[in-house]
Structures are given as structure tokens and as C-alpha cells.
Backbone:
């Protein structure tokens, strides 16, 4: 019986979102958004469900198959979708009420949301680009989510 | 993988760099005190680190020890050490030619003029009508001064013109962020200056960036990073921002400030009405940003130092202590709030208009320990050294540095390099924008990412080029 660790959480999150684990939790990480999301998940989801999440994900043999198995499970699927929304929107949604946002995790979660990277853009009110970026072609999507 | 850059450096780069710097330190450093045999260590007591060597060599880059593998905390320490090494080297007693006096130590014979104070100030580089600046090494007295100050500059005197960290603070009705003048507990307005080293000056001159028309043809600005190549190591681009307070006779006598004689210019204004003045005064250093572009930190290394008497950390007031920018007898006053307009630096402001400054983010414990180590080393040189009264607040650095010196090209999706710490401010330079709110609170790299030339081209993290005429 395995408990969910932050390392497994990041691997699962990478498989669910398609974003490299190194982007979700960099080796040198001053923001620790993965830690914030891990704490959010473990404070909202019961321990037995988290154990089943780990077991199902790891039993599949590889991350993509694991994520597929988790999403297909009637109990774990809604949790997995809440994890995806957590990463993409920085917001925790109740797995039992999937359209109901509970809270924005933090100010950091807002600007670190993956949706901005997938859009090759930036949050409203916060830009990580230089002045005049709007007149230029944005970098390719892979540079944002799967950099070499 | 960018996030593994520091691991990568660990194995292929910094081992050699560490060896090189060890050699440089051995040959050029001046040890301040003989190693003292440590008392027998208790099981629970960590070993006492040796006192740091004081060197007049500005480090070329950060030094990361080969073992153990770096962490966020260990790298922060490495950058903090680099900050102190740089502060010591730049504060070294200076010869008339701008070189460090290698026969002396900082503070050895009392306060000393420093290396960085011989560098070029912004007004010496960005001249009226975009004129080319005089060559490096030209004495200040040869530079054009406002008519009211002309012929008043005395030998050994410096020239201060800036009333805020940003130019035109007093006359701009709208500021990009909540700001205002800094006024000390004597009611006097603090003064500011920005200086640059020769590497930066040469790049500006070579590319005619001092001239607004010439900037029109510039499509990219990439200041030199320097190099640790053992065959020809070079210090990269360095900028300095200094904040000064006009000292009272008692403060001058206290021997706690690095001081200089200054000719202080206040530009005229009709709205608000401010008389043009030129005043001689003794000023004391209260804040110092050192910003250094290196090969391993193309987003620059942002070190910030303060005088220890500036202000308390929020909630940690020492009762009865005489702070320069905080009144211990008015603990209920609003903190970090600029006084209402109008602002007139010719005035001595009454107590009600003196802002109550506090540090919002405490200095980290490891940084405090490093401060104590360096302050002790400076005290060992001279028990009454003014340099022992300065402290490092922190160092901001890119955790995912750009792969090359050209940040905009080589790191287009992470231009800031994810700085650590996320927020950093100096109580005298970012007094009113301290905190932990993204894009609102002070973060050196994130703010300076917005800097451009006069033609809106990214200017490599410096706002100075906007001053070109």
C-alpha cells in the first residue's frame, strides 16, 4: 500500500497535463507551486482515495497508461480532473461537484497556471515577456511545456 | 533542461572556477585575521567557520562548491557570499586612478573613498542633447554641471542630483507604482545616484546608447556578462544604485556611516514650486544596490545592502533605538506610506511628514549569520570601521538562468529565470513597494524586465537607457 508522495504527484500531474515534470517541479524551485498543489489535494481528498490513486497510476506500467487508468476509474476520474484544473487554472474544484470552484490556491497559483503557457501568453495583470512582445511571433508551444 | 543548469555547472564549470578563484584568493587576498584555533566543539555545536578573506578582487561569478549537490538554500548562500565579496571589493580604498589600493584594507585608517565611487554616474553619461560622454577616467569637475552649481564643486566632493530612485520623482504626477520621496527622521530628503563600471560604460559608448537618435537604430541590447576563462577573466557589467542621507553633526560624529562630501543639486520646478538650489553637505550611505551581470546569471545578480540603523523589521522594533527612517516613539503611525504632496526637498519636513519605514520581509537567518561573519572581519581590521555597520538584505538571482548572455533570444519563455528570492527590496530604495504580492511588491528582476530604450527595445534589465537625450 503506497501513500501519495509529491514525487508521484508530479509524475501523475505530468502525465495528466502533458507538461514536463521538470516544468511542474524544477530542481531548484523558489516558488514551490507543486508543493502548494500537493497540499491542496491532500487536504481535500481522503487518504484511502489517494492510496488508490497511487496504486492505480503505478500499476499500469507507464505514466500515460497510468493516467488513462486513473481517468477511467469512476472514483479517481473526477479527482484526476480536479488535479488537471488545479494545474491549468490554479483553482481547486470539488471532485464531487466538478463545476464548483472552491478557491484560487494563491496569488502565485494564478500567475503560474499552465493555461497561460498553453496559450503561449500571460495572465492578465502580469507579464513575463518584454515590452512589445505582442508585435512578435510567440515562441513555439513546446518551448513552454516541454523545453529541451 | 534549464532547471538542471546549476547541476550542470557543478560538474563542468564551477569546479574549475572554484579552483581559479582559490588561486586568485591565495595570491591577491588579504587575510584580515589569522585563523584562531577553535575551542573543542560540543556535539551539538556546528564548527565555527573561518573568518572570510577580504579581497579587492570583484568576483567574476558565483562560486558553487562541488559537494554536496546544490539546493535552493545552498545556492542562496553562495550568491550571498558573492554579494559580500563584491561589496568588500567595491568598498576597497581607492587610488586616484580608480584602482583599489592594494596596500590597504577597507576602513583600516578610518572611512575611505571607495572604488565604486570613481565609476561613472548616470548624469555624466547621459548628457544634454545626447552628447558623447567624456572618456572613462575623466574627473567629475570636467563634466558639465548645472549653472547654479558650476565652479562650486570642491576637490574631493561628489555631485548628487537625484531626489528619488526614479528620475523626475517630484514632478511626475503619475508614477508606475506607489512611490514618493524618502525623508529621514531629521526631516531631510534622501538623495540617490546610479553609477556604472567601465564594462557598462564602454558598451554604452561603443553602441552610442547615450544618444536618443542613435538608439533608433538599435534592435538589441546585450550588456557583457564577463567571463571566468582562466586565460582572460573579465568582470561583467555592474550597476550601482546608492541612497544617501544628509547627516547631522551628531551623525557625522557617530562614525557609523560611510560618508562623503557632496554638492547636492535640487532642480527647479514650477509645479510644484521648487527653487533651484545647490548645497554642500556631508552625506552618509544608507542603501546600496549592486547589480552584476555574469555568465552564470545573465538575468544579473541583484545584491542589496543597507545601513543597520535604517529601520526595524516590521514587528521587531528595538525600543529607544535611533533609526534613520523610523520613529520609535510613534509606533502607531502608518508604515511605508509616502507623505502627501507637495514634495519639496529644500524643506526640512516636520515630524508628521516623515515616513515611518519598516522592513516587511525579515532578513533570512543564514544571511544574518553571514552578515555577522563579514561584519566581524571588517571590525577585525579596525574596531571602529564604518563598514561593520552595513548588512546584506539578500541577493536575488535566476534559478533557471538563460543559457547565454542574450536573455531575450536564449530564454524567450522564461525571461526572468524564475528569481530567488521572489521578492526583494531595500528599505531606502523600495521603501513603499515592499511585500509579497506578484507584480506589485518589489522584485528586482521582474520589474527590470520591463526596461526599454527610448525606442521601446528591451534594454537588458536597465532603465538607464531611457535617460538618453
Residues:
Amino acid at each position: 500500500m503506497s501513500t501519495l508522495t509529491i514525487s508521484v504527484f508530479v509524475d501523475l500531474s505530468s502525465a495528466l497535463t502533458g507538461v514536463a515534470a521538470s516544468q511542474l517541479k524544477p530542481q531548484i524551485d523558489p516558488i514551490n507551486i507543486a508543493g502548494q498543489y500537493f497540499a491542496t489535494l491532500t487536504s481535500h481528498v481522503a487518504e484511502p482515495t489517494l492510496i488508490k490513486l497511487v496504486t492505480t497510476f503505478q500499476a499500469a506500467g507507464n505514466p500515460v497508461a497510468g493516467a488513462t487508468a486513473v481517468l477511467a476509474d469512476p472514483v479517481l476520474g473526477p479527482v484526476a480532473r480536479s488535479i488537471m484544473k488545479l494545474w491549468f487554472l490554479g483553482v481547486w474544484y470539488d471532485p464531487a461537484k466538478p463545476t464548483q470552484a472552491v478557491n484560487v490556491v494563491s496569488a502565485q497559483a494564478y500567475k503560474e497556471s499552465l493555461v497561460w503557457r498553453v496559450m503561449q501568453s500571460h495572465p492578465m495583470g502580469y507579464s513575463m515577456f518584454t515590452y512589445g512582445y505582442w508585435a512578435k511571433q510567440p515562441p513555439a508551444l513546446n518551448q513552454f511545456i516541454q523545453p529541451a | 533542461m534549464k532547471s538542471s543548469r546549476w547541476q550542470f555547472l557543478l560538474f563542468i564549470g564551477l569546479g574549475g572556477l572554484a579552483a581559479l578563484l582559490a588561486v586568485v584568493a591565495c595570491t591577491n587576498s588579504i587575510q584580515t585575521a589569522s585563523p584562531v584555533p577553535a575551542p573543542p566543539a560540543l556535539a551539538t555545536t556546528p564548527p565555527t567557520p573561518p573568518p572570510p578573506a577580504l579581497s579587492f578582487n570583484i568576483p567574476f561569478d558565483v562560486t558553487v562548491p562541488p559537494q554536496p549537490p546544490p539546493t535552493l538554500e545552498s545556492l542562496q548562500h553562495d550568491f550571498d557570499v558573492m554579494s559580500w565579496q563584491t561589496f568588500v571589493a567595491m568598498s576597497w580604498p581607492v587610488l586616484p586612478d580608480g584602482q583599489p589600493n592594494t596596500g590597504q584594507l577597507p576602513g583600516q585608517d578610518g572611512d575611505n573613498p571607495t572604488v565604486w565611487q570613481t565609476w561613472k554616474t548616470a548624469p555624466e553619461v547621459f548628457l544634454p542633447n545626447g552628447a558623447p560622454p567624456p572618456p572613462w577616467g575623466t574627473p567629475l569637475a570636467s563634466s558639465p554641471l548645472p549653472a547654479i552649481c558650476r565652479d562650486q564643486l570642491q576637490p574631493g566632493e561628489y555631485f548628487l542630483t537625484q531626489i528619488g530612485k526614479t528620475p523626475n520623482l517630484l514632478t511626475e504626477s503619475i508614477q508606475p507604482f506607489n512611490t514618493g520621496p524618502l525623508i529621514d527622521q531629521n526631516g531631510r530628503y534622501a538623495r540617490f545616484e546610479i553609477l556604472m563600471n567601465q564594462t557598462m560604460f564602454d558598451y554604452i559608448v561603443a553602441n552610442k546608447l547615450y544618444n536618443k537618435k542613435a538608439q533608433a537604430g538599435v534592435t538589441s541590447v546585450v550588456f557583457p556578462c564577463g567571463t571566468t576563462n582562466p586565460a582572460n577573466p573579465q568582470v561583467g557589467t555592474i550597476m550601482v544604485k546608492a541612497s544617501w542621507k544628509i547627516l547631522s553633526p551628531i551623525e557625522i560624529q557617530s562614525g557609523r556611516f560611510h560618508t562623503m562630501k557632496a554638492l547636492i543639486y535640487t532642480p527647479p520646478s514650477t509645479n510644484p514650486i521648487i527653487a533651484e538650489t545647490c548645497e554642500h553637505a556631508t552625506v552618509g550611505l544608507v542603501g546600496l544596490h549592486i547589480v552584476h551581470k555574469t555568465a552564470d546569471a545573465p538575468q544579473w545578480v541583484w545584491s542589496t545592502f543597507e545601513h543597520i540603523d535604517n529601520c526595524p523589521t516590521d514587528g521587531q522594533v528595538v525600543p529607544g533605538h535611533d533609526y534613520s527612517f523610523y520613529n520609535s516613539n510613534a509606533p502607531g503611525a502608518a508604515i511605508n506610506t509616502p507623505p502627501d504632496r507637495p514634495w519639496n526637498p529644500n524643506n526640512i519636513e516636520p515630524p508628521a511628514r516623515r515616513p515611518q519605514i519598516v522592513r516587511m520581509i525579515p532578513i533570512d537567518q543564514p544571511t544574518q549569520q553571514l552578515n555577522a561573519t563579514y561584519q566581524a572581519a571588517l571590525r577585525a581590521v579596525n574596531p571602529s570601521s564604518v563598514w561593520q555597520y552595513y548588512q546584506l538584505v539578500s541577493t536575488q538571482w535566476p534559478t533557471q538562468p538563460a543559457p547565454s548572455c542574450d536573455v531575450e533570444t536564449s530564454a524567450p519563455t522564461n525571461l526572468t529565470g524564475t528569481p530567488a528570492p521572489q521578492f526583494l527590496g531595500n528599505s531606502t530604495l523600495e521603501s513603499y513597494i515592499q511585500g509579497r504580492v506578484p507584480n506589485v511588491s518589489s522584485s528586482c528582476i521582474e520589474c527590470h524586465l520591463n526596461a526599454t530604450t527610448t525606442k521601446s527595445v528591451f534594454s537588458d534589465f536597465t532603465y538607464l537607457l531611457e535617460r538618453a537625450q
Chain B touches chain A at residues 1-4, 6-7, 70-72, 75, 399-400, 408, 412-416, 418-422, 437-439, 446, 449-450, 452, 456-458 (CB under 8 Å). Residues 7-43 of chain B have pLDDT under 50 and may be disordered.
